[in-house]
Amino acid sequence: MVAPGNDNAQDHPIDGRPEYLLFVSGMSVKSLRAIENFNAIYLNYLKDSATLKIIDISMEKEYAVRYGIVAIPTLIRSNPIPVRTIVGDLSDTSKVLEYLGILEK
């Protein structure tokens, strides 16, 4: 599921590189699948050109509140604006790449 972007990003890397925040909860099947799927995207398409942070909200609840996380797993591209949010296990690689602007249709 894809949610509309939010132009009010809270943090941006100083160097201007794209930043991705992957919110998961513990070792659930969906969380593990999302981590695996985004790691593949990161290694195949982004490599060292972006920052990836994996945040386990079962251990860092304040991030869930700060970013308004209501479903897990959730991927947020917080930089560049517009912010992009995807909810789900990221298994449809082509849609993820297109929505995040990594590859054009």
Structural descriptors:
disordered N terminus; 3 helices; 5-stranded mixed sheet; 105 residues; Glutaredoxin; alpha+beta
Q: Count of DSSP E strands?
A: 5
Low-confidence stretches: 1-12
The outline comes out as globular
The CATH top-level class label = Alpha Beta
User: What's the CATH topology label?
Assistant: Glutaredoxin
Q: How big a fraction of the residues is strand?
A: 15-25%
Number of domains: 1
Count of individual helical segments: 3
**What structural class do you assign from the helix and strand content?**
alpha+beta
- Numbering strands along the chain, what is their spatial order in the largest sheet? 1-5-4-2-3
> What is the ordering of alpha helices and beta strands?
EEHEHEEH
Amino-to-carboxy terminus distance: 18 Å
Explain what you see.
The protein has 105 residues and is an alpha+beta fold. The protein has a single domain, classed as Glutaredoxin. The chain is 30% helix and 23% strand. The protein contains three helices and five strands; from the N terminus they run E-E-H-E-H-E-E-H. It has helices at 29-46, 61-67, 93-99; strands spanning 2-3, 19-24, 51-56, 74-79, 84-87. Strands 1-5-4-2-3 form a five-stranded mixed sheet, with helices on both faces. A hairpin with a 4-residue loop joins strand 4 (74-79) and strand 5. It is globular. Mean pLDDT is 87; it is low at 1-12.
Can you summarize this structure?
The chain is α+β, with helices and mostly antiparallel strands. It has three helices and five strands, in the order ββαβαββα.
